Amino acid sequence: MTPEDYAQAWNRALPIETYLSNQLSAEVDETHPYAAYYRINQQRVRRLSQRLRLEAETEAAGLNAKPGTKWLILSETWCGDAAQSLPVLAAVERASNGRIEARVLYRDENLDLMDQFLTNGGRSIPKVIQLDGSFGVTADWGPRPAEAQELVQRIKSDPERAHLYNEELHKWYAIDRQHAIQREVRELISNA
Q1: Residue 146: which of 52, 79, 81 has the closest Cα?
Q2: Nearest-angstrom CA–CA distance, 42 and 40
Q3: pTM of the model as a whole
Q4: Helix (H), strand (E) at residue 73
Q5: What is the mean pLDDT of residues 75-80?
Protein backbone atom coordinates (compact mmCIF):
# COMPACT_ATOMS: atom_id res chain seq x y z
CA MET A 1 0.00 0.00 0.00
CA THR A 2 1.13 3.53 -0.71
CA PRO A 3 1.13 6.52 1.64
CA GLU A 4 -1.89 7.76 -0.32
CA ASP A 5 -3.74 4.53 0.50
CA TYR A 6 -2.97 4.99 4.19
CA ALA A 7 -4.07 8.63 4.01
CA GLN A 8 -7.39 7.57 2.49
CA ALA A 9 -7.87 4.93 5.19
CA TRP A 10 -7.01 7.54 7.83
CA ASN A 11 -9.64 9.90 6.48
CA ARG A 12 -12.31 7.17 6.77
CA ALA A 13 -11.36 6.24 10.34
CA LEU A 14 -13.13 7.31 13.54
CA PRO A 15 -11.26 9.19 16.27
CA ILE A 16 -10.53 6.63 19.00
CA GLU A 17 -12.64 8.50 21.57
CA THR A 18 -15.63 8.41 19.18
CA TYR A 19 -15.11 4.69 18.56
CA LEU A 20 -15.04 3.95 22.31
CA SER A 21 -18.01 6.21 23.02
CA ASN A 22 -19.99 4.47 20.27
CA GLN A 23 -19.04 1.10 21.73
CA LEU A 24 -20.23 2.08 25.19
CA SER A 25 -23.53 3.54 23.99
CA ALA A 26 -24.40 0.84 21.44
CA GLU A 27 -27.51 -1.24 21.99
CA VAL A 28 -26.55 -4.91 21.86
CA ASP A 29 -28.42 -6.94 19.26
CA GLU A 30 -29.30 -10.00 21.33
CA THR A 31 -29.69 -12.11 18.18
CA HIS A 32 -26.09 -11.48 17.09
CA PRO A 33 -23.83 -14.50 17.61
CA TYR A 34 -21.31 -12.31 19.45
CA ALA A 35 -23.89 -10.54 21.69
CA ALA A 36 -22.26 -11.82 24.90
CA TYR A 37 -18.86 -10.51 23.75
CA TYR A 38 -20.31 -7.07 22.99
CA ARG A 39 -21.75 -6.81 26.51
CA ILE A 40 -18.63 -7.94 28.34
CA ASN A 41 -16.43 -5.71 26.19
CA GLN A 42 -18.61 -2.73 27.02
CA GLN A 43 -17.98 -3.54 30.70
CA ARG A 44 -14.22 -3.90 30.11
CA VAL A 45 -13.96 -0.62 28.21
CA ARG A 46 -16.04 1.22 30.81
CA ARG A 47 -13.99 -0.18 33.71
CA LEU A 48 -10.62 0.54 32.09
CA SER A 49 -11.64 4.00 30.90
CA GLN A 50 -12.55 4.90 34.50
CA ARG A 51 -9.74 3.17 36.40
CA LEU A 52 -6.70 3.14 34.12
CA ARG A 53 -3.75 5.19 35.28
CA LEU A 54 -0.83 5.41 32.90
CA GLU A 55 2.61 4.66 34.26
CA ALA A 56 4.93 7.70 34.45
CA GLU A 57 7.13 6.19 31.73
CA THR A 58 4.14 5.80 29.43
CA GLU A 59 3.01 9.38 29.97
CA ALA A 60 6.56 10.56 29.25
CA ALA A 61 6.70 8.47 26.09
CA GLY A 62 3.47 10.06 24.89
CA LEU A 63 4.72 13.56 25.68
CA ASN A 64 7.99 12.84 23.88
CA ALA A 65 6.44 11.16 20.84
CA LYS A 66 7.45 12.49 17.49
CA PRO A 67 4.91 15.17 16.53
CA GLY A 68 2.53 13.98 13.81
CA THR A 69 2.58 10.33 14.92
CA LYS A 70 -0.60 8.59 13.84
CA TRP A 71 -2.06 5.31 15.05
CA LEU A 72 -4.43 3.74 12.55
CA ILE A 73 -6.10 0.92 14.49
CA LEU A 74 -8.03 -2.01 13.04
CA SER A 75 -10.58 -3.33 15.51
CA GLU A 76 -14.09 -4.65 16.16
CA THR A 77 -16.19 -4.09 19.27
CA TRP A 78 -16.64 -7.84 19.84
CA CYS A 79 -12.86 -8.28 20.26
CA GLY A 80 -11.76 -8.90 23.83
CA ASP A 81 -8.14 -7.95 23.18
CA ALA A 82 -9.32 -4.63 21.75
CA ALA A 83 -11.40 -3.97 24.86
CA GLN A 84 -8.24 -4.47 26.93
CA SER A 85 -6.00 -2.34 24.67
CA LEU A 86 -7.96 0.52 23.16
CA PRO A 87 -8.60 2.35 26.46
CA VAL A 88 -4.81 2.32 27.00
CA LEU A 89 -4.18 3.67 23.49
CA ALA A 90 -6.79 6.39 24.03
CA ALA A 91 -5.15 7.38 27.33
CA VAL A 92 -1.73 7.58 25.67
CA GLU A 93 -3.18 9.74 22.90
CA ARG A 94 -4.65 12.12 25.51
CA ALA A 95 -1.36 12.21 27.44
CA SER A 96 0.61 13.05 24.29
CA ASN A 97 -0.81 16.59 24.10
CA GLY A 98 -1.48 16.22 20.37
CA ARG A 99 1.76 14.51 19.39
CA ILE A 100 -0.13 11.24 18.76
CA GLU A 101 -3.50 10.97 17.05
CA ALA A 102 -5.36 7.65 17.09
CA ARG A 103 -8.16 6.61 14.76
CA VAL A 104 -10.02 3.33 14.34
CA LEU A 105 -11.32 1.41 11.33
CA TYR A 106 -13.54 -1.63 11.56
CA ARG A 107 -11.50 -4.63 10.47
CA ASP A 108 -14.30 -6.44 8.66
CA GLU A 109 -14.92 -3.40 6.44
CA ASN A 110 -11.19 -2.99 5.66
CA LEU A 111 -9.84 -6.44 4.88
CA ASP A 112 -7.51 -5.11 2.18
CA LEU A 113 -5.70 -3.11 4.84
CA MET A 114 -5.95 -5.90 7.43
CA ASP A 115 -4.36 -8.35 5.02
CA GLN A 116 -1.21 -6.22 4.99
CA PHE A 117 -0.75 -6.82 8.75
CA LEU A 118 -1.56 -10.47 9.45
CA THR A 119 -0.43 -12.20 12.64
CA ASN A 120 0.71 -15.76 12.01
CA GLY A 121 -1.41 -15.69 8.84
CA GLY A 122 -4.57 -14.55 10.69
CA ARG A 123 -6.58 -11.35 10.78
CA SER A 124 -5.97 -10.84 14.50
CA ILE A 125 -7.00 -7.56 16.08
CA PRO A 126 -6.52 -5.01 17.36
CA LYS A 127 -3.72 -4.03 15.03
CA VAL A 128 -2.07 -0.64 15.44
CA ILE A 129 -0.41 0.69 12.31
CA GLN A 130 1.90 3.54 13.27
CA LEU A 131 2.25 6.21 10.60
CA ASP A 132 4.39 9.31 10.32
CA GLY A 133 3.20 12.72 9.18
CA SER A 134 3.57 11.66 5.53
CA PHE A 135 1.53 8.46 6.08
CA GLY A 136 4.54 6.20 5.90
CA VAL A 137 4.41 3.10 8.11
CA THR A 138 6.99 3.29 10.91
CA ALA A 139 5.90 0.24 12.96
CA ASP A 140 2.90 -1.87 13.94
CA TRP A 141 1.67 -3.55 17.11
CA GLY A 142 -0.90 -6.10 18.07
CA PRO A 143 -3.04 -8.01 18.54
CA ARG A 144 -1.91 -8.38 22.15
CA PRO A 145 1.26 -8.14 24.25
CA ALA A 146 3.91 -10.74 23.41
CA GLU A 147 3.49 -12.53 26.75
CA ALA A 148 -0.27 -12.87 26.17
CA GLN A 149 0.34 -14.00 22.58
CA GLU A 150 2.63 -16.78 23.84
CA LEU A 151 -0.02 -17.81 26.37
CA VAL A 152 -2.71 -18.01 23.68
CA GLN A 153 -0.47 -20.02 21.35
CA ARG A 154 0.46 -22.43 24.14
CA ILE A 155 -3.17 -23.01 25.17
CA LYS A 156 -4.46 -23.32 21.60
CA SER A 157 -1.79 -25.91 20.80
CA ASP A 158 -3.26 -28.24 23.45
CA PRO A 159 -6.53 -29.69 22.07
CA GLU A 160 -7.76 -30.50 25.58
CA ARG A 161 -7.32 -26.90 26.75
CA ALA A 162 -7.85 -24.91 23.53
CA HIS A 163 -11.45 -24.07 24.43
CA LEU A 164 -10.19 -22.32 27.60
CA TYR A 165 -7.93 -19.82 25.87
CA ASN A 166 -10.32 -16.85 26.16
CA GLU A 167 -10.87 -17.39 29.89
CA GLU A 168 -7.15 -17.84 30.56
CA LEU A 169 -6.25 -14.82 28.42
CA HIS A 170 -8.55 -12.48 30.33
CA LYS A 171 -7.27 -13.83 33.66
CA TRP A 172 -3.82 -12.88 32.41
CA TYR A 173 -5.03 -9.37 31.53
CA ALA A 174 -6.59 -9.00 35.00
CA ILE A 175 -3.31 -9.94 36.71
CA ASP A 176 -1.13 -7.84 34.37
CA ARG A 177 -3.36 -4.74 34.71
CA GLN A 178 -2.29 -3.32 31.32
CA HIS A 179 1.40 -3.04 32.27
CA ALA A 180 2.58 -5.16 29.34
CA ILE A 181 0.48 -3.14 26.90
CA GLN A 182 2.02 0.06 28.23
CA ARG A 183 5.57 -1.32 27.94
CA GLU A 184 5.00 -2.38 24.35
CA VAL A 185 3.27 0.89 23.43
CA ARG A 186 6.33 2.76 24.74
CA GLU A 187 8.47 0.64 22.43
CA LEU A 188 6.08 1.34 19.55
CA ILE A 189 6.38 5.09 20.15
CA SER A 190 10.16 4.85 20.18
CA ASN A 191 9.97 3.53 16.60
CA ALA A 192 8.00 6.53 15.29
Answers
A1: 81
A2: 5
A3: 0.95
A4: strand 69-75
A5: 96
